[in-house]
């Protein structure tokens, strides 16, 4: 069962995304802070990380930067999830090593399409030809 680490400090967002992803058959790990997310990513080696940017203790930019600098976690795809909609924020996501960027409020169909959560393809962020499906 593919593992997704959801790093999100907002309980309502964390609950909604976790439940929807679990219904699609994914094993969900959750972290409420940047430091928790960093630790879980290193310990659990998830297949994908959904990273909120505005987090307590350590922001998502720094977590992504540290994960991409670490040989053991650098290949884990990271999708930045943020309410920030400026082009400069999107550019910063890619600069720190995020593999994709999506805005909040999270539209699950859009997130599924953008992230291409289609296990068994060349890369887990390759776009799905049909949005909002489980490609397993």
Describe the overall structure.
This protein has 136 residues and is an alpha/beta fold. Helix content is 38%, strand content 18%. It has five helices and five strands, in the order βαβαβαβαβα. The radius of gyration is 13 Å and the shape is globular.
Index terms:
136 residues; alpha/beta; five-stranded parallel β-sheet; 5 strands; 18% strand; globular
What is this structure, in a nutshell?
It contains 5 helices and 5 strands, in the order E-H-E-H-E-H-E-H-E-H. The protein is α/β, with parallel strands linked by helices.
Q: What profile does the largest beta sheet have?
A: 5 strands, parallel
Q: How many distinct beta strands?
A: 5
Question: Oligomeric status of the shown chains?
Answer: single chain
N-to-C order of helices and strands: EHEHEHEHEH
Q: How is the largest sheet built, in terms of strand order?
A: 2-1-3-4-5
| Backbone CA Rg | 13 Å
Mean pLDDT level: 81
Low-confidence stretches: 117-136
Task: Please indicate the percent range of residues in DSSP E strands (runs of 2 or more).
Answer: 15-25%
Q: How many helices?
A: 5
Fraction of residues in helix: 25-40%
Q: Cα distance, first to last residue?
A: 10 Å
Structural class: alpha/beta
